[in-house]
Amino acid sequence: MTDSSGVARWPTVPVTFAGIVLTLLAAAQLDGLQLNGDLYGLLGDDDPAVMTFRDLAKVTTGLEELLVVCDPDQHMPRDDIRRIESLPEIRAHTRTYIHPGKSSLYAFSLTGDAADYRHAGIVVKQVAPILSAMTSTCGMAGTPAYIVETHDNLNRDLITALVVALVLVTLLFAFVYRIGWLAFAMFIPVALGIEWGLAAYSLVRPELTLFAAAVPTLLIGIGIDHCIHMIQACRYSIVRDGLSRDDAVLSAWWRLLRPITVASLTTVATFCALAASELRGFADLGIAGAFVSTGVYVACITLLPAILLACPERWLSGKAAFDMPLRALAGWIEKSGRSIAVAAIAITAIATYAAGNLDVLSDIRKLESTDIQSRILQTRIAEEYGLSASPILIRFDDSDDAIEFMADIDRPESVANLFDVTDIKGLVQVHPVANPFIRSNFEAVTWDLERQIERLELGAWTLSGAPALNARIDELLFADIRFVLPLAAGLILLVLAFGTHSIGLPFVVLLPLVLSLIWVAGAMSMTGVPASVVTAAIIPLVLGIGVDGGVHLSAAWHRHNGDLTAVFAETGLAIVVTIATSIAAFGAFIVATSPSLVQFGAQAAGALLGCLIVTLLLLPVILRHRLTAEASRGQ
Length: 635
Hints:
Elements: H1 12-29, E1 34-35, H2 48-59, E2 66-70, H3 78-85, E3 90-97, E4 104-110, H4 117-132, E5 138-141, H5 142-177, H6 180-202, E6 207-208, H7 215-239, H8 245-275, H9 280-310, H10 313-317, H11 323-335, H12 337-355, H13 373-385, E7 392-396, H14 399-407, E8 415-421, E9 424-432, H15 439-456, E10 461-464, H16 466-500, H17 504-527, H18 533-559, H19 564-587, H20 595-634
Parallel strand pairs: 1-6
Antiparallel strand pairs: 2-4, 2-5, 3-4, 7-9, 7-10, 8-9
Helix pairs in contact: 1-6, 1-9, 4-5, 5-6, 5-7, 5-13, 5-19, 6-7, 6-9, 7-8, 7-9, 7-19, 8-9, 8-16, 8-18, 11-19, 12-17, 12-20, 16-17, 16-18, 17-18, 17-20, 18-19, 18-20, 19-20
């Protein structure tokens, strides 16, 4: 079949065959991909702070122990202690704390890495039935139990969010276009593209860290954007131009190839900027996002036309909701352009002032779930025995230095207690008075410790522990923000300049998105929501994803010579639905139990909602002003 313009028939058979082969290869490659739910996995095993902690763990039996905690005045039978101690993954029963009126504590060191989910998971699964068969009420705490529980909760949250995103996107599309089956058809290239991208990612990284694990859910909303624009363009060609289904599909493909490619490249560019981060969590998010975005793009431009050509024509020619209201909106925008611009400037000024007082969350533990049983038990132990749940660790090369350090009577006021670790020479636990996971508190206590060590003229020492890892994440976070944001913006501008063949238009398209981010920062400040590592992750994502609507709007603006009614008739509904699906994909994380995922979803959804508003209302005003200015210069 050849259309009136001489466009050749779509190669459905070879494209479908290639897709099947690639899908089978990807499925085989994905078999070894693991999920890493450890929050400190955001640093990566090659980070100096992690390497120090791991090296300390190798020479320190029981540094990361499995703790069995029994209710006050309840004890663990000696036979059950021996049963746990005899497990192949348990190295030794290292210590026991039993005090009247307090919880009984039994510590077991592991033969492998206690922070490795695969090893810790085996241990926890073996110990769980032993504890459930006891008459005493006991539970597990410590690093192994926490890692397993966090991992399982994360896995459950991601599956739940994925299902919710699928349902929301399907319902949204079915409601707007009134054809549910077409929504399911759209998911085929998106799902295959996600699989291809994850398979490519697994060739580079063996595991998905906390942020990278959210990519499949995000790309449902992002990837389906291409499908929606293609379907809307087909509807426009059938209804307005009178083309047949086959001609409409091929015409839409050629007409949208450039804007879809540019929009995809802006998303890939954003993820590439994140991939350059020093923080492993951001880098993994960037690598996974770049691969998956590319996979979804390739699947959509190759497989989607074949799917649409197989659909009944009535699926593409029916009426859609909100078509007429959007066309009416175009007339209102034309009349109210100055008022819209004034309102945008006023909102931006207020938001900028409020954003100047935005707090930053330095206690990364507040991004973790508080209802995790292992963490509850760990906190109870700390309160009952007067110990910090996560002390700072100091390892002196000379064990005599550790003895002198602990014997010093002029202890800093920021330090509550000092304890040595049984049978580990030179290792001291520092229990601060204030929460060491808050940046200012950690810096204060470490400064006091350094002054104390200098005053005593002690030898070489190493600082480690969970608070030190938290401080390292904090340090890299602020460094990456200053680097990633300008890089992402620069790459997006380059892509837009290449795709639009203009130098000024990319700044016009990107400006409303910057305003949207300022509005969100101002809203967070006014509502008391602090910025965090999560906020830093969504900013470049919103720039790369939110710009897609502006790309399609500016392309349609050029095709229709600034006729806003015609622009909205062709692509206005698609812009609304695509950004709405992205909002639904991010918003699906709000149902998660993990505060980090909830914040990730809520903040990104709010920013994209701002993108939708400025793209529909403000961007046409800016484009109209730019067109008028160019006409004036021409005269």
